[in-house]
Amino acid sequence: KQWYQRRVAITAGGHMHWEHKEWNKSYDHKALRRGFQVYKEVCQACHSMQYFYWRMHIDVTHTKEEVKEMAAEYMYPDVDDEGNAIERQGDIQDFMPAPYDNEIKARLANNGAHPPDLTLINVAREGNEDYLFSLLTGYEDVPPGQAEPAEGQAYNPYFHGYYIGMAQQLYNESVDYEDGTIPYQSQIAKDIIQYLAWTAHPWMDEMSMYGMKAVASAAALVIISYIAMRTRRNGIRSRQIHFTVPGHDKSITKNGVVNNFTKYKEVDDSIAKMKR
Hints:
The chain is mostly helical. The protein is built from 9 helices and 4 strands; from the N terminus they run H-H-E-E-H-H-H-E-E-H-H-H-H. The protein has helices spanning 29-43, 64-71, 103-109, 121-124, 128-137, 185-200, 204-237, 249-254, 265-275; strands spanning 75-79, 85-89, 154-155, 163-164. The strands form 2 sheets. The chain has a two-stranded antiparallel ribbon. Strands 3-4 form a two-stranded antiparallel sheet. Helix 1 (29-43) crosses helix 6 and helix 5 (128-137) packs antiparallel against helix 6. The radius of gyration is 35 Å and the shape is elongated. The chain starts with 28 loop residues before the first helix and ends with a helix.
């Protein structure tokens, strides 16, 4: 299904429906692959993801051969056997490359703004997916009475301070999806946000699976314990232990209800009289 643009005011407590956040759902791997395509074609020019390994994509968004091929497109600094500085092709064990060598170059290329790393951006911003969706699709014209943004800035009511150093990046058909999905602006935003949610928490599917197994195992143990208590433990709970005193065995046996007060015949007789 296609996602139509819905702007959510996070400050008003609005929330969107994200299927991967349900307890019995997992990430949509097709959406993750499309999200990686959006990152590579739109976001990677400015934003880094330098805390995420290439190998994490294997069997999730791409095959191992595809990941090796993508990593080999970039050159990484290294040293040879003699300690000399060299550059080598990337490998799946490397982190994803950053677009700039350092923060100074990043600021110079972006009018003084420093594009944040996107590896953990989904958990680093209050509102998580809702906030990112609103931010990416919430660009508007400057309303009357508001100051015009400075050079290199844009107006976005969902950004703290309203003026953001990133121009609008997502438009209808700004990405040509490999799988033929119609690239509406909201669909593109949904895919890149789900990809960023996965990079921030790549083991969520495994944790959900283990959690469901743990809950199922605990439920089975509770049922087995209840059945065992009703069938096996009742005999132990309802048993009576008779204590006999030498010379008073017959009086104790004669009494129908045996308890700790019937150890002596005198007590038995007193109780019998009281019953009459």
